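Quick one: structure tokens for this chain, please?
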Amino acid sequence: MTSPRTEPASVPRERVLAPFGRRTAEIVGRASYGPYVVLRCVDSDGPAPQAGQFYMVASAERWGGGDGERPFLPRAFSVLRMIAGDDGRLELQFLVDDVGPGTHRLCELTDGDALSIMGPLGNGFAPPREGRRPVLVGGGVGIAPLAIWQDQLGGGAPALLGFRDEARALGGALLADVTVATDDGSVGHHGLVTDLLDEHLALGSSGIEVYACGPEPMLEAVAALTAEHGAPAQLALESGMACGFGACFGCVIATRAGYVRLCLDGPVLDAELLRGIG
């Protein structure tokens, strides 16, 4: 007899389901924010994503090392922003950092080129509980799902953002009501973004719910701080994903509810599920 499945998330979420298979989305614009590139594309056939969901993204052409070489796997990208057009089509925006061959190819794309996309996938953010005020905490390209979430919340959610240096801090312009921390002190607070969060929680954690995305050490610190201050938190985790829909088991992580696949049960999980997991 098999054991009943334990639900891995303690916060109710509404999952927007993706159409079957991959589809093509035309690039209609690109912009640079320091080393980051924002790609804008039109999705004619997909539903509107929930903040925190992701897409498996690849260039529709030249997606690989060259003739006779294996193609790259699609990359998982959270939606940065979504704009609904009057014609019913959606503009999706993705934030890309040129850190390897696959992301370099994506950063080469320009108007008229095509993306191959599949999504939206996974579970996104849930509304704040018990009338709490949302506070957004992001690090590096982890700011992406926080931008669309700030849009969907309708404003009023402050964003605490951490970057390596002044060039990368230009990405902070993608959100509103931003306080910035940089590792080298070139912009804003000299130190970690979790320093800013600690100060924010100390002013009144009873009315706050934290939403965070960024590097693993940052998310671990957010989980610890929110536990210390008694504030709930929802964390958008990052993991290597080869398929995006649960077939490859490449994104399995341990939680207090057991092992889960981030592409299906996340990428957004309640921080409480990760506390004490080392």
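The first helix runs from residue 101 to 108.
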